[in-house]
């Protein structure tokens, strides 16, 4: 038995025989010189292949819309835009003329340059767009070479699909009633394969690294999408554990379904808002499925991670799509948070010696006000379609907040000057994710309409720990008394100022943590959509008095070890 660890991309567990999907497109690409007089004919072949590819992608879009929803169908809208891109078409024609090589060779060469550019980016979101380029290019190449693509639609028995990577068209066309789980060497949580796996309810572990080479086709595997583990050739104990986990999940799902329509509250009726965190618009469907009270954190930088700087219209359309989908429920859009571990050279953000302490988030936006105002205008215009709130990331001083609000006011005047309607009373708040913001939260509350505590970064900066460094990762613990005191201070100061305060870090997704946080005074938690049922369930079974008792006991403790042991024993979670 072997355990391989990857990224927990889609929750759930499954056990079945392995099916190795080797659609690696290892075709022999012909390469030969052409005469100058053949350029037009070669380009015509390319156009014909593109036309046929567009027909196929349109059909896939329609199938995705029917089977998964508008957000998943939008993946193929992006593919259609790529097929219609005039710049790409012009590049093909130019390369044909300058190289005088056949069109297959030219298409392959341009794809390779594009993939190299995307793959060299530091941000995972950009890297994962490689699959879109592969998908579109291989579809064109298949028509140029008259080759039929392999698909997952003909599988007739239950299997765990393992592959180097899965393209969006592979996912939409596959036999979903037979594919019980997915494991891939590449990919991450924001890849289209992950998004579609979550939409289809298929457990998935992605980004495992190289493992397929020595895998036998008759192997049995367990996919644990909750822990991010692939178990190959499981022993009897592992098989029993998977079966028990699957049955427990089914029982929980039935229980969760019973409370799906209920408002989240404590056992004695204290209302708790459970919001959802999203990274891309495609996740809205899950937010609605789990009946979230709104979106507490929309990480807007997804639009900026495609290798270009989006214009106001492109941003406006994306924000509007999310806001309209939420049908009046609040949507909190965090302004651009780049820098740190999200370096975008096209925005001028470069590598730094201490990037997490450097030119990032609000610091970048305040230094490039045109990019900042463009985004603010797009958000403000989308605000008339629902309940939109703006949140500024990594605020560390009052001066930063005052300046950010001033630029927001300028953006409002510019919108009105262009005849665009905007909401006059849109709320603007801040992420509390550095110690200085928590320590000065009483002062910041005078200029902020709300607080949202980001425990991932607050813990990192409070404990002076790089959470990506395995040697010191043990210090990154939100249950550390220093972190808990900053959280409590922020909650108390927000209450004194009579402004809303929520928490959107991973800490809120843990049911035991949720009890503690409510006991500390929080009335809004923002978590990943799939975490909502478990958090709601535990709150419905806990009184506010019990939660406050937990908080009072915990705040007297001197170590995170004590806190964790106490909560685990107190609630047996």
Strand content: 5-15%
Largest sheet geometry: 8 strands, mixed
Query: Uncertain spans, ≥5 residues at pLDDT below 50?
Result: none
Shape: globular
DSSP summary: helix tally: 22
- Reading off the top of the CATH hierarchy, the class of the largest domain is best stated as Alpha Beta
What is the end-to-end distance?
Answer: 29 Å
Radius of gyration: 25 Å
What is the CATH topology assignment of the largest domain?
TIM Barrel
Determine the oligomeric state from the structure: single chain
Sheet with the most strands: spatial strand order: 1-8-7-3-4-5-6-2
The name of the CATH superfamily of the largest domain reads Phosphoenolpyruvate-binding domains
CATH architecture of the largest domain: Alpha-Beta Barrel
Number of domains: 3
Structural class: alpha/beta
Fraction in helix = 40-55%
* Averaged pLDDT: 86
């Amino acid at each position: 038995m072997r355990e391989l660890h990857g990224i927990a991309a889609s929750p759930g567990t499954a056990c079945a025989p392995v099916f190795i999907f080797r659609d690696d497109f290892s075709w022999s690409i012909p390469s030969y010189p052409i005469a100058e007089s053949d350029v037009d004919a070669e380009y015509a072949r390319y156009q014909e292949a593109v036309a046929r590819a567009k027909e196929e992608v349109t059909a896939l879009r329609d199938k995705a819309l029917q089977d998964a929803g508008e957000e998943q169908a939008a993946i193929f809208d992006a593919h259609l835009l790529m097929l219609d891109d005039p710049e790409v078409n012009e590049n093909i024609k130019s390369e044909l003329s300058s190289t005088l090589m056949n069109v297959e060779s030219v298409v392959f060469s341009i794809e390779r340059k594009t993939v190299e550019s995307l793959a060299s980016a530091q941000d995972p979101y950009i890297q994962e767009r490689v699959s879109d380029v592969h998908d579109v290019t291989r579809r064109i190449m298949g028509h140029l070479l008259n080759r039929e693509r392999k698909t997952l639609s003909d599988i007739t028995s239950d299997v765990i699909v393992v592959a180097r990577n899965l393209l969006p068209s592979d996912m939409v066309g596959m036999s979903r009633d037979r594919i019980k789980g997915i494991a891939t060497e590449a990919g991450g949580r924001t890849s289209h394969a992950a998004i579609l796996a979550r939409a289809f309810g298929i457990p998935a572990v992605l980004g495992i690294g190289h493992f397929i080479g020595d895998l036998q086709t008759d192997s049995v595997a367990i996919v644990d999408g909750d822990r991010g583990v692939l178990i190959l050739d499981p022993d009897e104990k592992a098989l029993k554990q998977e079966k028990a986990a699957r049955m427990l999940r089914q029982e929980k799902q039935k229980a969760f379904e019973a409370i799906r329509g209920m408002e989240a509250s404590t056992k004695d009726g204290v209302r708790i808002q459970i919001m959802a965190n999203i990274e891309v618009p495609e996740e809205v469907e899950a937010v609605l499925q789990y009946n979230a009270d709104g979106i507490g954190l929309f990480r807007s930088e997804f639009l900026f991670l495609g290798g270009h700087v989006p214009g106001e219209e492109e941003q406006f359309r994306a924000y509007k799509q999310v806001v309209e989908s939420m049908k009046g429920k609040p949507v909190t859009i965090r302004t651009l948070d780049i820098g740190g571990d999200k370096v975008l050279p096209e925005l001028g953000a470069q590598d730094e010696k201490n990037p997490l302490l450097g030119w990032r988030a609000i610091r970048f936006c305040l230094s490039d006000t045109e990019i900042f105002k463009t985004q603010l205008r797009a958000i403000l215009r989308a605000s008339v379609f629902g309940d939109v709130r703006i949140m500024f990331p990594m605020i560390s001083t009052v001066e930063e907040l005052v300046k950010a609000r001033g630029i927001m006011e300028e953006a409002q005047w510019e919108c009105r000057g262009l005849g665009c309607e905007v909401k006059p009373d849109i709320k603007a708040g801040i992420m509390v994710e550095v110690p200085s913001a928590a320590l000065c939260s009483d002062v910041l509350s005078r200029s902020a309409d709300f607080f949202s505590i980001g425990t991932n970064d607050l813990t990192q900066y409070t404990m002076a720990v790089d959470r990506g460094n395995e040697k010191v990762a043990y210090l990154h613990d939100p249950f550390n008394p220093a972190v808990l005191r900053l959280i409590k201070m922020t909650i108390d100061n927000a209450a004194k100022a009579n402004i809303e305060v929520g928490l959107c870090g991973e800490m809120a997704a843990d049911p035991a943590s949720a009890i503690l946080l409510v006991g500390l005074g929080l009335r809004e938690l923002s978590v990943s959509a799939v975490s909502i049922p478990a958090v709601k369930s535990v709150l419905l079974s806990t009184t506010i008095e019990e939660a406050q008792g937990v908080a009072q006991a915990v705040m007297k403790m001197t170590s995170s070890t004590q806190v964790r042991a106490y909560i685990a024993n107190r609630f047996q979670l």
